[in-house]
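Input record (one chain):
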Amino acid sequence: MNKFKKVTFLDNAVETKIPYDWEVKEKSKTLTEFTFPIGNYPKLGLSLECFDNPKLVTDKDINNYLVEGIDKNKELEKINTDVFKIHYEIRTSEDNVILWKVLNVLKPRNFRLVRLSLAWPNNKDANNVVNKILKEIDEVIKAFRFSKEKTGFDDLANLEYKIKNIRLEVKNLWNIFNIKLP
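The corresponding structure, as predicted from the sequence alone:
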């Protein structure tokens, strides 16, 4: 990855470096697609999510969260004290899919999750082309940097968590109306 360009996401909460010849298409603030110089297929999908979760405290909790829905025997890689990574592959006779999850912990209870996915047909030519791309993707993942400061997206995640977990009381007015209030 000699020549690269910096790309940022979520108001600079996440940044990385990608090869200059990759094309970037932002589909929304939380969804981006990358295409490669070989054409429009395959595409590397990247989705971002900020969330608040006071229950993710230990490395074991984080591991359980990241492997939810997949093989529980996957090894969690701790990139540094606040960044974790896991990847897994799904191969069939017709298709290959590789998925990566990179989780940033912003203490005390904010998280930023980056999901990447790449799918391609399972044949010799496609596999040879994609093997070169996979090496570049590993470099892109190693280049991820996360802001140490909270962004508006982190604040929205906090608010969303509070709204989801708000407890409402039913108040009876004049024995006619019931209204739910926090």
